[in-house]
């Protein structure tokens, strides 16, 4: 891995918190992700199952974690299975985790080779009454591919039909949404790498540059700072491309007088950052562009103040909508009649700001978190308002990642990344 080793205390704590919420005489199983084929002998880069990583720190394929806190055999209360390594594998693929290295990474003391899984699982299942199976129940999930976890769950329930079944996901949704200080440090590191990338392109962008050239500059800076690269598919949208919310072609030339909307960020140690900025191609905003920019920035600042313990996500978005409505009225994009006659299900402001303002972020860009439950300290949210005006040929989105505090305003993990319009202009015209 490119990233520095993570203190195993994080994963020990995460397992302890998960097991504290399990039913008596129950065991939970977590599988690594598959390596997905492309064609011939080509595969996609491996990405670890986030839940397995959260509970073990193991970032390797063909790994399985079993948790059974009530197991009569004390050696089987936490068991990790990893693929057996050998000299041939080391030559062709590089070294894999030894049993000793797996323990050092995860803090799990009992480690077996994967070939022993069914034998050990048989013994453990004889003591258990309930299986916790892991499924993806994120509110944005739309998975058509059968995962390694899916296949295992299907096999497990067919092999042991007399056991009761419970779900790991509700526990993980709550646990993963509240970050440990080690996690916050990792996310801060990802944000710091993102800052380096953004500052790099402020000195690079000029009329005539291509969106993909900017993408290459960012990738260079991210990877040279121990990131795998982009935390998600980057959006580098100049001119009217910014009005396509998920524009990812990044294949157009940036023209004098246009703005470029960036939704780009680095990952670090599987933890994500998520940044949006909008800059002028020529280094100077027009008066109109700056007015809209400052309106978006104002909404972002006011929305951030609302992210406090006890806030409900749905109510928060209603309040942000009121702030955005006020700014759109000032800009002349909507009028009082539009507001008076608006459909409550699709308010007038939605014509120019049609997406949500915030989402959880962590091991996933759209991270786990139960939106119907009140916000808590150490939850991390994006704040990303935007105004999109196709008829004027530009769109503006600004986004930072912030940590909810026990008291007061959230802490901005991206507080050092330039955002004020004047600062952007000054840096671009050095």
Automatic annotation (TrEMBL):
Residues 6-142 form the Aminopeptidase P N-terminal domain. CDD domains: Prolidase (cd01087). This is Xaa-Pro aminopeptidase. The keyword Manganese applies. It catalyses: Release of any N-terminal amino acid, including proline, that is linked to proline, even from a dipeptide or tripeptide. SMART domains: AMP_N. SUPFAM superfamilies: Creatinase/aminopeptidase, Creatinase/prolidase N-terminal domain. It is an enzyme of class 3 (hydrolase). Belongs to the peptidase M24B family. Its EC number is 3.4.11.9. It comes from Polaribacter marinivivus. Pfam families: AMP_N, Peptidase_M24. One of its GO terms (molecular function) is aminopeptidase activity. Its cofactor is Mn(2+). Keywords: Aminopeptidase, Hydrolase, Manganese, Metal-binding, Protease.
């Amino acid at each position: 891995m490119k990233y520095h080793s993570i203190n195993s205390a994080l994963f020990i704590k995460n397992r302890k918190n998960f097991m504290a919420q399990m039913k008596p005489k129950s065991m939970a199983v977590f599988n690594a992700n598959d390596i997905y084929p492309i064609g011939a002998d080509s595969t996609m880069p491996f990405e670890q199952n986030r839940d397995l990583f959260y509970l073990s720190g193991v970032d390797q394929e063909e790994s399985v974690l079993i948790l059974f806190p009530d197991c009569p055999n004390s050696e089987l209360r936490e068991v990790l299975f990893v693929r057996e390594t050998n000299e041939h594998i080391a030559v062709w693929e590089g070294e894999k985790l030894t049993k000793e290295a797996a323990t050092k990474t995860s803090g799990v003391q009992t480690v077996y080779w994967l070939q022993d899984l069914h034998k050990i699982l048989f013994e453990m299942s004889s003591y258990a009454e309930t299986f916790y199976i892991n499924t993806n129940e994120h509110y944005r999930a739309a998975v058509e591919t059968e995962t390694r976890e899916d296949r295992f769950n299907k096999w497990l329930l067919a092999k042991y039909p007399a056991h009761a079944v419970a779900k790991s996901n509700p526990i993980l949704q709550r646990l993963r949404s509240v970050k440990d200080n080690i996690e916050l440090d990792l996310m801060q590191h990802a944000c710091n790498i993102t800052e380096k990338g953004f500052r790099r392109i402020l000195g690079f962008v000029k009329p005539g540059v291509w969106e993909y050239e900017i993408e290459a500059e960012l990738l260079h800076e991210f990877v040279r700072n121990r990131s795998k690269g982009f935390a998600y598919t980057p959006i580098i949208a100049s001119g009217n491309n910014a009005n396509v919310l998920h524009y990812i072609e990044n294949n157009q030339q940036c023209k004098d007088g246009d703005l470029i909307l960036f939704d780009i960020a680095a990952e670090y140690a599987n933890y994500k950052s998520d940044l949006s900025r909008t800059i002028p191609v020529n280094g100077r905003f027009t008066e109109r562009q700056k007015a809209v920019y400052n309106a978006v920035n104002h909404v972002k600042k006011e929305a951030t103040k609302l992210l406090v313990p006890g806030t409900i996500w749905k109510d928060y978005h209603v309040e942000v909508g009121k702030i955005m409505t006020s700014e759109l009225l000032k800009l002349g994009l909507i009028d009082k009649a539009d507001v008076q006659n608006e459909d409550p299900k699709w308010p007038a402001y939605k014509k120019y700001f049609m997406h949500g303002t915030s989402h959880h972020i962590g091991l996933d860009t759209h991270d786990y978190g139960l939106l119907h439950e009140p916000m808590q300290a150490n939850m991390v949210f994006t704040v990303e308002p935007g105004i999109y005006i196709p008829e004027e040929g530009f769109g503006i989105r600004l986004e930072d990642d912030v940590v909810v505090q026990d008291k007061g305003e959230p802490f901005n993990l991206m507080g050092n990344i330039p955002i004020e319009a004047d600062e952007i202009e000054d840096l671009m015209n050095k």
